[in-house]
Amino acid sequence: MKKIISFLAILVGLLSACSRTSIPLQKLRSGDLPPYFSSAVLFGVDKDEMLKTNSFLIVIGKIDTTDESAPERVAWIKLDNQTRKLTLAEGKTEDLVKLRYTDPDYDLLISYRLTADQPAGYEGSFVLKTKTGQVSERIYGTAGYH
Asked: How does pLDDT run across 38-87, given as a tens digit for each residue?
């Protein structure tokens, strides 16, 4: 009987781990980003909180380390207490900006547009996908720093 209960407990644990559909994004702070990074837009889900606490879910911009190559366009996210860099894979700039950033484990699609709302001057949404799930959220953005 104990073996059956143990087996069921393990099975339930495995099934719940396999059915995970969300990705726990953590907030980024300026100290999480490298010094040679220049941010273009800082995104969060609560525009008042992100500006008061200076913490963001997604930060996009450029890394410029040398004069020999063009700056690398990247997005930064934080998962499992690790800051991850995703590289721009494709982008389309019109009234609605659509950018796709990737790394070997994640695929991030950000869509946003300029708004008249201040202090957050952008609004849109993102979808972050991995092999085990995805998360999507409405976001607000503000101009970054250089």
From this structure: 888 999 998 888 878 888 999 999 988 777 888 899 999 998 899 999 99
Please, which residues have CB within 8 angstroms of residue 54's CB and are 6 or more apart in sequence? Answer: 29, 30
Give the separation between CA 132 and CA 69, rounded to whole angstroms.
35
**Which domain range does residue 115 map to?**
22-143
Question: Within a 13 Å sphere around the CA of 53, how many CA atoms are in the beta-carbon half?
Answer: 14
Question: Whole-prediction pTM value?
Answer: 0.78
Distance CA 82, CA 141 (A): 22
What sign does the CA torsion over 90, 42, 79, 139 have? negative
Number of domains in the chain: 1
